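Reopening this one. Same input as before:
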Amino acid sequence: MNYIWDLLIKAEEQGLTKEDIYFYLAESYSPYMELSLPLLNAQFVEQYVEVNPYYRYFSIFKNLFHPNNETNLAFKEYLFDIVLHFLAEIDRGQGMNKNEFYIRFILSDIDANVFGNTVRDHIHAFSKKEQEIILLNMLRLYQTGEEIYLLKDTLKRLFPGCLIYLKSEEHDELLIYISQKKTLQNEQKVQLVQEIFVPIGYQFEVYWQYHFGIIETEQTMKLDQIALY
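Same output, byte for byte:
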C-alpha cells in the first residue's frame, strides 16, 4: 500500500468502509512516500492512517498546517481528513475502466431492488472479490445472453471444484454438486446465482458435501457419502 486510494481498496477487501478510515497528518514521514505506515509491508489496514500530503498534493496543503499557525487545529484536522477522502475517490475514478463504471451502476440497481429481494438481500453474503465475479458476469450476461455458460463460470469461481450436470432428456434440469457444507451464507450465495443466471423453465437442484451416486464411478459410490437423486 503506497497511496491513499490503494489503502481504501484494501480496507474494503477487509470489510471496512471508507467512513472507518481516518487520515491525519504524519508527524514524521519519508519525503518519497505518501503513506507513513508503521510497517512498510503491512497486510492489514489500520483505521487511523498517517499521511504525507506533500508527496502529491503540496499545492493544496502547503498552507494548511503552517508551523507558526496553531489556531483551529481541530477544524484543520477534520478538513484534512475530508479532503483526502475526496482526493482518494478522484484517484479511484481516474483508474477505472468502462466495465468498472458499469458494474457500479449494476450494484446501485441491486441496492435499489431492481433485481428483486433475493438479490438485494443476499449480495452482502459475498466478499468484495466475489461481488466483482457476480457483477462482471451479470454485465457479460447483458452483452452475450449466455446464461448456462455464465452460470457454470460463476459457480466454479465461487465454489472451486464444484460439478455441474445438465440433463435434458425429459425436461431441462441442472444438478449442482458443491463439496462444501451447506451453511446459511453458502445457501444465500447459490440462491442469488440461481436468481440471476438460471434460465426460466429450468429445474435447479443443489447437492452439498456428498455427491449423488453414479454407477461405475467409484468416487461417488462410497458408503455413508452418497446423496440420493
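So the earlier flakiness isn't reproducible anymore. For the record, The mean pLDDT is 83.
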